[in-house]
Amino acid sequence: MSDQTQRYVAFDVHKSYLMVAAVNAAQKVVLPPRRIEFSRFEAWINKHLKAADQVVLEATTNAWYIHDLLEPRVARVVVAHPYQVKLIAAAAVKTDKRDTLALAKLLAANLIPEVWVPPTEVRELRALIAHRRRVVSQRTAAKNRLNSVLHRNNIVPPAGKLFNQENQAWWLSLDLSCSEQLRVRQDLATLLHLNPQIGEIESELARLSTLDPWADPMTYLVQLPGIGMLTAMTILGAIGDISRFASAKKLVGYAGLGARVYASGQTHRGGRITKQGRRDLRSVLVEAAWSAVRFDPNWEETFERLAHRIGKKKAIVAVARKLLVVIWHVLSAAETDRRANADKVAGKLMLWAWQIGQAQRPLSPGQFIRYNLLKLDLGHDLDFIVRGGVKRLIPSPDQLKADRPDLFVD
Fold this sequence. Notes:
4 domains; five-stranded mixed β-sheet; 16 helices
């Protein structure tokens, strides 16, 4: 074949090898399915792939590595949505060879359901968020095991935070069997090991929250009720570039928070949410919705009205969906929420400043608050906030511009 001949190449990726096959525009097989070990994959693509080729692979754990390897060498690389490909190309007989050929033919027919390829910074943030979730899950499991010890033995715990350092001696003094004492010691050691790790991860997330491309959208997210630094970074990592969602409805569908719909003939009915989307985004929005309902009167009123009609479980999901719609609007337009309360927003900005830390934040907490309030066009007359009974001063806009003119250079 000449270099100008268009080929449609498919890779079926497995843990230690890939299957490759290719067809031409007429869907005639020009490269029969064959197996390539990962150890010789790069040498194979350098020898056999041509600049005019189009390539497709399904989204898997190592799909982005393969995508980045292939992209400079071919005309186009498409990453396919595995679930939707399965719906299109379902077959009674399933083998690696058949799957690879089917993928190549779908690409030639322009029928591949394509997924967005996130840039490196989005991949890194998603990986860090997922790592934190796994470590927190391990910590929660250790706490649950320790709580079950108290429950089994009918032990009343001391007042205060049960797993703080000052209660370590109390745990070790419990009258338990030798094997149970061993399990308690090891679970306590697990907590002592995991807590600093979680703190380190959260410090890194706080640092990233002040850098491009996250710093600007972070300000617009943190202003919303129920959303703090960790929640905002999780949302931004899941969404990526907000401009790829043409409407709030598209973003709701991406999160799997849209309702199921069956409409055929004279039958039309809705159902539960689809849950066909990013689970991490859906979960963190429900958590944010509970927090918003607890601390914001407007969201509380919305929740109570819905709960009276459809019950609390469905109501909180509905609130999460409404919150996601607000998120789409404030991020897409880079605008302030019309219900934003300057004093409450300033308090959240102060917490964000503390999480970042002075070493990673070149501004004082007051300067940081004022700078972000100016971005939101909020609280121009706000001179201080009171938190924990302590009055904390905020510099005026003119004072900040005089002290830090570099922040306002176009």
